[in-house]
């Protein structure tokens, strides 16, 4: 049985068709579940060895829908959490703790309209961040954004299959560039590539990366981001 089908059966057992009968023009939990997994899939963060996904989700619905589901909100949130955990396990994703889900009423939304927002919290609330914060590369594509977490290691970029970030582009060398972690800083180094490595439009052999820098490798652009420290 698929994760979604199992979720549907659990809801049916819990609510005995309540939503189908009473919420014909409003929200449906199964549709919210589908939106949650799409949000999870679209915002993956890749590290050297793991594939992280958001662990905090906000479900934005109309005020009328929020009032209707209020008696069942705690149960629904618990079911959504279990559903996301099962989906993450099935796909091989890494979740940093049990996903936190909040249902919020938004006046501008119409009956039945649902929006999902998500974030990846890398540390528990209340724990002070160290250094300059997490650094990562963002790569945009047809399937959404992919984030590559830059840990305290060297990240290789190129066309060859054993790179950490693989770019299938004939303009990219097999081993094109690498990003090194030096203390709290990250350096990008060109590996004598054929067509060069560019940062903010300038060709570089080596450059310290700053928040907001754009890296061009072949026809691919990667965006360097760093979370602000506390």
Structure, briefly:
The protein is of the alpha+beta class. The chain has helices at residues 3-15, 18-22, 29-42, 63-69, 73-91; strands spanning 45-46, 51-52, 56-61, 100-105, 114-119, 135-141, 144-150, 155-158, 165-166, 177-182, 185-190, 197-199, 202-204, 206-208, 214-217, 220-226.
- Report the end-to-end length measured between terminal Cα atoms: 45 Å
Question: How would you classify the helix and strand content by structural class?
Answer: alpha+beta
In the CATH hierarchy, what is the superfamily of the largest domain?
A: FhaA, phosphopeptide-binding domain (DUF3662)
- What proportion strand? 25-35%
Keywords: Phosphoprotein
Domain FHA: 155-204
Pfam families: FHA, FhaA_N
Protein name: FHA domain-containing protein
How would you describe what is shown here?
- With 230 residues, the chain is an alpha+beta fold.
- Helix content is 25%, strand content 32%.
- The chain has 2 domains: 3-119, hypothetical protein PF0899 fold (2-Layer Sandwich), CATH 3.30.2320; 135-226, Tumour Suppressor Smad4 (Sandwich), CATH 2.60.200.20.
- It has 5 helices and 16 strands.
- Strands 2-1-7-6-16-15-12-13 form an 8-stranded mixed sheet, with no helix packed on it. A 5-stranded mixed sheet has the order 9-8-10-11-14, with no helix packed on it. The chain has a 3-stranded mixed sheet with strand order 4-3-5, with helices on one face.
- A hairpin with a 4-residue loop joins strand 1 and strand 2 (51-52).
- Residues 123-132 have low confidence and may be disordered.
